[in-house]
């Protein structure tokens, strides 16, 4: 059976770099589908038996072709239903965009949300009946604990486009570096992620604060390098204004890192009691909790152990595979 996997990305390398795309492609292939990958209208086949779509925003493109031949469509991803600040969520969109999103929700055979927060918000707020909750997951054999002592590294993974850098509080992370270095002069900070529109100003800020010698921006790094950093860092630091899930947080947890974030969006669902979720995102607050972890090796080890166990128990690859297999089977059985 032929399935079209559609994700509207500008660079096809994202399908390998972003774990959530890759894992769903792998799942579809393991379920026996012949997978055709499309990233634009012209690449979407007219004759697929089933359409697996990432993101509701552009789902109307494959839906048009699917509806013509009466083929089923499954849509998944983060919906961004309601943010704590206006400007980026569903409610802040123009009415015509909201209408398209609602139409995609109604015309799809299944809407698969990656967090309970969004599942409850969208199904309750918009009256969607064909909603499912299936979280992001990881291959915990691949994202494994490291061996030996961890290095004096505080790691963050975040894209450095302005909206992403602001949402993930990258400026505040840089401003916290001097406060951490005052207590732990050997520590180094790494902020990995695509060099986007905020990169130049972040570099300028680091130079202004005289921390550019202990702060690196390696850009997009291969998966094996990312895993190695997550296995080696003493603290994984990802404050945030909002997270529809928090995949990088989950990855760091699976690698046994001590995680620091904020109790926003779906982060509490992911982290539970296996990390430190702090109220506030000021440089002083971030530095205080990072310093606490750097000074307390038993606490770091305990959080890392609990984090890995939580991922293995709640977010294993097999969980999403089994859930998607069941949903797809039910879609075809009901036709």
Question: What is the element layout, followed by pairings?
Answer:
Blueprint (H helix, E strand, L loop, with lengths): L1 E5 L7 H4 L1 H12 L3 E5 L11 E5 L5 H9 L4 E5 L17 H13 L2 E4 L2 H11 L4 E3 L17 E7 L4 H6 L2 H14 L4 E5 L6 H10 L6 E5 L3 H10 E5 L9 H8 L3 E4 L5 H5 L4 E2 L5 H13 L1 H18 L2 H17 L2
Parallel strand pairs: 1-2, 1-3, 3-4, 4-5, 5-6, 7-8, 7-10, 8-9, 10-11, 11-12
Protein model, in words:
With 335 residues, the chain is α/β, with parallel strands linked by helices. It folds into two domains: 2-137 and 316-333, Glycogen Phosphorylase B (Rossmann fold, 3-Layer(aba) Sandwich); 151-314, Rossmann fold (3-Layer(aba) Sandwich), CATH 3.40.50.2000. The protein has 14 helices and twelve strands. The chain has helices spanning 14-17, 19-30, 60-68, 95-107, 116-126, 162-167, 170-183, 199-208, 223-232, 247-254, 267-271, 283-295, 297-314, 317-333, and strands at 2-6, 34-38, 50-54, 73-77, 110-113, 131-133, 151-157, 188-192, 215-219, 233-237, 258-261, 276-277. The strands form two sheets. The chain has a six-stranded parallel beta sheet with strand order 2-1-3-4-5-6, sandwiched between helices. α2 (19-30) packs across α14 and α7 crosses α12. The longest helix is centred in the C-terminal third of the chain and has 18 residues, at 297-314. The chain is globular, with a radius of gyration of 21 Å. The model has no long low-confidence stretch (mean pLDDT 96).
């Amino acid at each position: 059976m032929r399935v079209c996997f559609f994700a509207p990305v500008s660079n096809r390398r994202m399908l390998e770099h972003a774990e959530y795309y890759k894992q769903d492609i792998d799942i579809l292939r393991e379920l026996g589908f012949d997978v055709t990958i499309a990233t634009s209208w012209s690449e979407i086949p007219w004759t697929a038996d089933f359409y697996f779509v990432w993101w509701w925003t552009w789902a109307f493109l494959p839906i048009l072709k699917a509806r013509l031949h009466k083929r089923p469509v499954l849509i998944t991803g983060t919906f961004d239903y309601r943010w704590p600040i206006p400007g980026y969520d569903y409610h802040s969109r123009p009415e015509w965009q909201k209408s398209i999103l609602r139409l995609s929700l109604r015309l799809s055979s299944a809407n698969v949300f990656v967090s309970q927060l969004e599942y409850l918000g969208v199904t309750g707020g918009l009256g969607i009946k064909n909603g499912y909750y299936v979280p992001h997951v990881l291959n915990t054999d691949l994202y494994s604990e490291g061996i030996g002592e961890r290095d004096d590294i505080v790691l963050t993974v975040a894209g450095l486009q302005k909206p992403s850098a602001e949402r993930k509080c990258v400026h505040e992370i840089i401003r916290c570096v001097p406060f951490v270095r005052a207590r732990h002069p050997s520590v180094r900070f790494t902020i990995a992620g695509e060099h986007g529109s905020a990169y130049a100003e972040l570099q300028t800020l680091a130079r202004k604060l005289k921390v550019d010698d202990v702060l690196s921006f390696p850009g997009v790094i291969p998966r094996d390098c990312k895993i190695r950093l997550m296995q080696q860092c003493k603290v994984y630091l990802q404050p945030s204004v909002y997270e529809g899930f928090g995949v990088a947080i989950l990855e760091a947890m699976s690698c046994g890192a001590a995680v620091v974030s904020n109790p926003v969006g779906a982060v509490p669902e992911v982290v539970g009691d296996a990390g430190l979720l702090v109220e506030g995102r000021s440089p002083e607050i971030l530095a205080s909790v990072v310093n606490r972890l750097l000074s307390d090796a038993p606490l770091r080890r305990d959080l890392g152990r609990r984090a890995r166990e939580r991922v293995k128990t709640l977010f294993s690859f097999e969980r999403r595979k089994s859930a998607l297999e069941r949903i797809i089977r039910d879609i075809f059985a009901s036709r």
